[in-house]
Every structure is written in C-alpha cells, then in structure tokens.
Amino acid sequence: xxxxxxxxxxxxxxxxxxxxxxxxxxxxxxxxxxxxxxxxxxxxxxxxxxxxxxxxxxxxxxxxxxxxxxxxxxxxxxxxxxxxxxxxxxxxxxxxxxxxxxxxxxxxxxxxxxxxxxxxxxxxxxxxxxxxxxxxxxxxxxxxxxxxxxxxxxxxxxxxxxxx
Length: 164
What we know:
The protein is mainly alpha-helical. The protein has helices at 2-55, 59-66, 71-74, 77-89, 93-106, 114-126, 130-143, 147-161. The longest helix has 54 residues, at 2-55. It is elongated and about 90 Å long. The model has no long low-confidence stretch (mean pLDDT 83).
C-alpha cells in the first residue's frame, strides 16, 4: 500500500508543480501582453501624430516623431512605407527610395497598387533613374483605376522620358 500512496503523492506533487508553472507562465504572458499593449499604444500615438504633422506639411516634425516609435514597429512595412512617403514629401528622395524598396521587399503586393507605383516612379524621376521610372510607370498604366491616376502617369511619363 505504501507504494501506491507514494505514487499518488508523487503524482499530486507533479500535478501541483505543473499547475504552479502553468500559472506562473500565464502571469508572465499577461505581463508581457500588457507591456506589448502599452508599447503598441505608444507607437500608435507617435505614428498618428507623425502622419498628422505630414498632412500639415510639417515634414521635419513628422520625421522627428517617427523616430520615437519602438524598434519593433520600425521593422514593420507600414512604418517603413510611411517613413519613405514622408521622406519623399520632405525632398529626401534617396532615403525615400531606400525605404520604399525595403517596404516593397517586405510586402511585394505594393506592386499591385497604382498609387504606390506612381510614388515610386516620382522618386525615380527625382533621383534621375529613367529606366526604373519608366518601368514603374508602365506597370502603373496597366493597372490604373482612375482618370486622376492616368493623368499623374502621363505627366510623370513626360518627365521620365526627358531624363538623360
């Protein structure tokens, strides 16, 4: 009988140990989730404040605010794309080109968005990359969805063809 009592006691201790570990891991998970939620909220504030500044053409302020988001968010396609867009608007074309390419590498479906293609072509025109500008414009022309987009494409096409 002692053996079965010992076995039952050991099972109880193992079960109790397992439940304690499970409880501790749940507490730790909630703590991490809470920290991540706080970080996410902080990133949202900085990101939306930066986008608000960019809409008001305050590009230096937008770029400054974007530097305050967490390193985790800075790796996201949304951050990289938005940073590239703000840099483009601020006249930082080389850096905008680098970040737009990074965003495109992370999320290749940008290539199915005519507005994105038009922005990339605009950057290529600014940095005098005629071949890339014409390539992106041709693709944008194939998938353009509005007269406004077609007008932008036509205007950029003229500028791109005039490049050396």
